[in-house]
Amino acid sequence: MEPSLEKQNRICSESFFLRPDNNCTVFSRDIRDFARVAENIPCQNACPAGTNIPEYIRCIYEKRYGRAYEINRHANIFPGVLGRICSRPCESACRHGESDNGTGVAICHLKRSCSDLKSESHRIIEELYAPTGRKIAIIGAGPAGLAAARDLAVFGHDVTVFEAMEEPGGMLIAGIPEFRLPRHLVRLEINNILRQGIQLKTSTLIGRDIGVEELIDDHDAVIAASGCVKPVRLGIEGEEFEGVYNGLEFMKAFNNGDAVLTGDRVAVIGAGFTAVDCARAAVRLGASDVSINMRRTLEDMRIDENEKYEAGFEGIKINSLVQPFKIIGDQGRVKGVEFVRTRMQAGDDANSRVCVPIEGSGFIVSLDCVIAALGQQPDMTLVPEGKNINGKFFCAGDFLTGSSDVISAVAGGRQCALAVDEFLMGRKRKEIVARLEIHPGTDRPRSYDFIERTGMDTIDIELRRSDPAAEVEKGFNEMQAHEESKRCYLCSLQYEIDPLSCIYCSACIDVAPKECIKMIRAVKSNPDGTCAGYEQAHEWDEVVSIAIDNVACTRCGQCLAACPMDCIRVIKTELIETDIMNDI
Prior knowledge:
By secondary structure, the chain is an alpha/beta fold.
């Protein structure tokens, strides 16, 4: 039974088909369209920098590696760097990783592939604004500071970056080992930022070589983006013994090639990327018995599964539910650690867990070296006190949020740059809009759903030990990148049924490979007008529309081919950054 026109129009209220210009491109600020992007493109929504992941993976599929690189570089600044060391929140959100779909797409490895495979004559693209004459000082040349510098230089401002170390990069140079992140690549992508006219002053420590108040007086705005440089201490007896390092100190020495005496038995205290980097570095320094020790469970480690696997492959043990109680020494040098066992119990609210020591569970482990990799804190002495700064002082990245990861720091730097530009110019000059256009469909056959995730080739264990700087992961070759790119569901392509043309023949339902096309009796709405979901009908006399659930859709295109009324359309939906002054 065909539904009434009134019911059809209610179902159509969020449909592209009812827009008067539905045969051309639409640029939307409608909150409903932003909600659709957030729900239907979970990888991009999970990326702190908002990288257009389906678009760059499609470019890799088409072997347009330079274009894929630029899509990445526009959003996340460092495609080659992040293609190696990103924390990969997008991959855990990937729809291909849901229980009935297999394993998530290797998004991070594909990001690296566009960097590795692009032409040597690739041209960097920047859309520069006219010079403004405004002067901006940025404290710190790490990911957040460099991201802010890039965007502010594009906005036409004069940018000077002050860096305490001898070269830019922050933790990319000092904290992350070369076997994960080659230094020539870091320097290349940093140079792509600096060559836009950004001045860099290295070996300049704010507070020693120049005061923050002086920066404020000499510039129109100042950004503190120096990250977290003060190590978190264990706070237990014996930290002063020789052979006890903090994680940042240890990694700086390792990365600089300085002599670091670890001995054979090394215990790393911590549960994040730095802890794993320290343990893997200790292996390369010749330690034969290396362990990572954490007071919570293995599932609580703040690293991805690949890092856990590589640590285990290199012979590193991970001990969970243990906590250091005291460092034991002899003649000023560490000899061991007294640990206590811990257990997890419910916290104050139902969804939290806390770690508590178990009384009488202490035990001693003989050691030659202890590395406390508990993270760092920002140096808050940079924040000016008692001075009228007239809103000129801004903070970005880990300096503002505390220790996070590189992709979050980049996102924070870019957000800060927008705020600084608005402050200096008195108005916003850029905004994010949803771009929607009719798309011819997909050429993604159903068979792509069953392609296994492409594994990453690595160097053997002997080379890892003989050459500590050798990059462990080899990257995808062109064939591997193309094969992995096929697996992406292309979630930016939204399938919609025009209920005013649909004859309810159920042909689309019959060919759907999974329950992605549904009979609908009502649409649920949130208070802000966004769609809260569908109420499914189970009998035909309840049906007011047939709708495609894009959260479940795999973009196989079978419904499009089967529809006798040609009432199914594919709408490419993506978020883009645009100038506010332009008539869009």
